[in-house]
Glutamate--tRNA ligase (Fulvimarina endophytica), 458 residues
Amino acid sequence: MNPTFRFAPSPTGLIHIGNLRTALFNWLQAKKTGGRFVLRFDDTDQERSTRAFADGIETDLAWIGIVPDLVVRQSDRVRLYDEAAERLKSRGLLYPCYETPDELDRKRKRLAARGLPPVYGREALRLSAEEKARLEADGRKAHWRFLLPNHDGDPAITKRSEVHWDDLVRGPQTVDLASLSDPVLIREDGSYLYTLPSIVDDGDLGITDVVRGDDHVTNTGVQIAIFEALGLTPPRFGHHNLITTLTGEGLSKRSGALSIDALRREGYEPMALASLAVLVGLAGSIEAMDDLDALADRLDLKDVSPSASKFDPAELDRLNEDLVHRLETPAVAGRLKRFAVPTDDHDAFWQAVRANCSRVNDAAGWREIVYGEVPHPADLPGEDAAFLRETLAHLPEGPVDEGTWSAWTKALKAATGRKGRQLFMPLRLALTGLDHGPELAALLPLIGRERIAARLGG
C-alpha cells in the first residue's frame, strides 16, 4: 500500500510558519514516496472552529503549492467517533469520572506536596452504581477516561508498561504508560477531545505515516495503546522539533504570529517561507529552493535537529531577496500588470529593477520612479544645477536605447570635464529622485526622452 500522510490543523485561527513546517514535512514525504496527502480539519471544537479559518488554511497551503488528495472534516464524521467510544465503553476501557477541574487540581497539588507524580489515581473506578447515581442527581456530569493497559487485571495496581516505536525523526522511543494518567477522551458536555477522533480517522482513512511536532511524543505512547484497543494498526510516527521566536516563545494560531496570510500580504514569496520552514534546524545550509521538488530532495527527516529552531525574520528576508533576484519575467508578469507597468515594457522593466527589489512589491515603487512624477532635486550646489541645465544639449539624437547612457555621459565628460560620481550623481538625482538604484543605462529607455527632458528642466 502506498504511504498516506496527513496534516490535521484545527481551524481556530491562522496557520503560522510552524504549522507550515508540519504540513510540508508530510507533503514532501508523500511526494518523495509516491504517496497520498490528506488534509483533515480537526473541527470538533464548534465554539472556536470556523469555516472561514478552514478556507483560509486551504488558501495558504495552495499558495505554497500544497494541494491535498483528500480533504475531510471531523464535524462530518462524529458517528464514527460515537461508535468507537461505545466499543470502548462496552469493554470497560472508557469509564466515567465525576471530579470537577478544581477537585482534580487539588489532588495534583497534594500529590506534588508528597513528592509523588501527579497521576490520576482511578478513584472513579471505585464508585458504586449508587454513588454514580447520586453524583448525577446532584448535577455532576461525567467526563470519560481511557483505561491505560498498565496493570495485570487490577487497575489499582499499576506496573511499568512500555510502548516502543521507531520514530521517523528521533529513532527508537519508549514511553512508560504507568507514568501517565488515564487520558480524558470525552468532556463533560459530550464533546470529544483531540485524541479519539484523530485515532479513529487515522484508522478509517488508512493513514500510514504521521509527522508532527515533538510536543506529541508522550501522547504517542497513549495513542498507540488506544489504536490497539480499537483493533487498528498505528501509523509510523515522526516527531520534528518546533519553531519558536528569537526569544524562545512558541507560535500561536490565535495570536496570528508569523501567520502565512500576514507574510503573504507583506510580499514574501511562497518558496522563501517553504524553504525556511523546512530547512531551519536541518543539517546543511539554509538556501532558497526554487520549487517544492528541490525542497523535497533536501529533506531527510533524520537530519532534523532535536533542539527547537528559532525563526529569524532576517533569514526570511535574505531568502526572499535571493529568490526575487532569480525570478524571471513570466513569474512576476501578473504583479507587474497590477502595478500598471506597460505590458510591452514588462521584461525590460523587470530586468532593470529586480536586483534592487527585496520583494516583488518593491517594483511598484520603481514603477513610479520610471513612469510617474519625480520631484526635482532640491539644494543642489550651484555648479551641479548649472551642469544639469547643460546636459540636455548633449543627449544623443534618435531613440533612447541601452547605448544612450554611455554615449551621453561620454559626450558630457568631453564637454564639461566632469567624470565619475561628479558626473553621474547629479543626473541620477534629477532623473530618479534618488542617489541609488538600478543602472541608468537600463532605466533611460523606460523613462523615455520626454520624461528625461522634463526632469532635467527642458
